[in-house]
Amino acid sequence: MESTLTKWYSDWQNRRHASEFDVRHTLDSKNLIRAYEAFNDVRLLNGRLDQSSDISLLEVGCATGEFYRYLRVKYPRVRYYGIDISRAAIARAREKYPEAHFAVSNPDIKITDALRDLRMPEHPEIVYAKDVVHHQTRPFEFVSGLLQLPSEALIMRCRTRDVGETELDPELSCQYHYDGWMPYIVVNLNALIDHILEANPGCEVVVLRNHMILGGQYNRFLPKECYLTETGTAETAVGVFKKTECPGKVSIEDRTDQNPNYSLGYKVRRGLSRVLKIVTRR
């Protein structure tokens, strides 16, 4: 039988994955902070961290490790661990930041078992998973695994829909990327929240929802209704807080991810770089 790794995740080993996810490496520290803090998921995380935070954080889907650099600059006392299924991305992360803890994970085994095999903390205070859930063949099962890990909070960024059932067949909801097809599952938001509360009834769930049309972008092959505004598709940040004064509370806020306010110097350098690429192609 063809394994999950072979059928759906082999294209993550493409070296293009490492190079395309490494674009933030060119940013200086100030602009790197601006880039990450434009996103709702990082806003949720920053609401739980400060300069004195002496905790462990596991990033699931760390790619080439730039979020480690963000944390090192912003919260130097956070103990960081990063895992990713891409060997090329982890190799690049280790090359840049040999002092950090990066490891290749196996999507064919449970994440709890993966951490044990990798000798990483099985229950860090915070787990952070950005743009990982929607690339899973079994997203709800994957979320269940994530929920078992943190002692304090799970923060993730995923793709949701307000109306309509989740299409769980990756043959019908997928994305062509890195010369192959990969799952792109848009989960029903209410179903996701119910799933979280069933697994952790005493937690607080905070949702920051950035509505946008998900269909028709970046070689995505999605159900037809995902191309319609009435479906309410969104890039959605979800915070699951186990340590809370409001157990069982669910709050949903519509909040747009911001465009990073990069410095003038960086904008000029980026513009010149683009012009140079156009000229050299001629």
Describe this structure in words.
The chain has helices at 4-9, 15-20, 29-36, 40-46, 66-74, 87-96, 111-117, 139-147, 189-199, 264-281; strands spanning 56-60, 79-84, 101-104, 126-130, 153-161, 174-177, 180-183, 187-188, 204-211, 220-221, 234-241, 250-254. It is of the alpha/beta class. The strands form 2 sheets. Strands 1, 2, 3, 4, 5, 8, 9, 11 and 12 form a 9-stranded mixed sheet that branches. A 3-stranded antiparallel sheet has the order 7-6-10, with no helix packed on it. α3 packs across α5 (66-74) and α8 runs parallel beside α9. Helix content is 32%, strand content 22%.
Distance between the termini: 48 Å
- Which percent range fits the helix content? 25-40%
Sequence of secondary-structure elements: HHHHEHEHEHEHEEEEHEEEEH
How many domain units?
1
Class by SSE composition: alpha/beta
CATH fold description = Rossmann fold
CATH homologous superfamily grouping:
Vaccinia Virus protein VP39
Q: What is the tally of beta strands? A: 12
The proportion of strand residues reads: 15-25%
Low-confidence stretches: none
What is the residue-averaged pLDDT?
91
- The CATH architecture is 3-Layer(aba) Sandwich
